[in-house]
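Working notes for the structural subgroup meeting. M.R. asked for a predicted model of this chain before we commit to crystallization trials. I am recording the input and output together here so anyone reviewing the notebook later can reproduce the run.

Input as submitted:
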Amino acid sequence: MFCRSRLCGLVVAALMIGACAAAPVQTMSDTRQTIKAAEAAGADAVAPQALAAARDGLKRAEAEIRVGDYRSARRAAAAARQSAADALAATQQRNAANGSR
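Returned structure, recorded in token form:
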């Protein structure tokens, strides 16, 4: 009995570690979509620095994935997504203030 419960515990721990070590596919996808939305809204003109930071962060995340550092890739992608979201929000706010959408 003890060996079985211990084995189950090890299997569960291994699965949890494996999940953390997986490539951040969804985070990368979310980041790309947010960057595209910011670009489509006109962030190049309104918030170029935030948009550039998002693009740079995405490139950094892609480089981290290539070397297998998924934890760093996840952090870089999340930061890039936040920069893109900031660019999008600034653009939407400016567009709303100008009366165009």
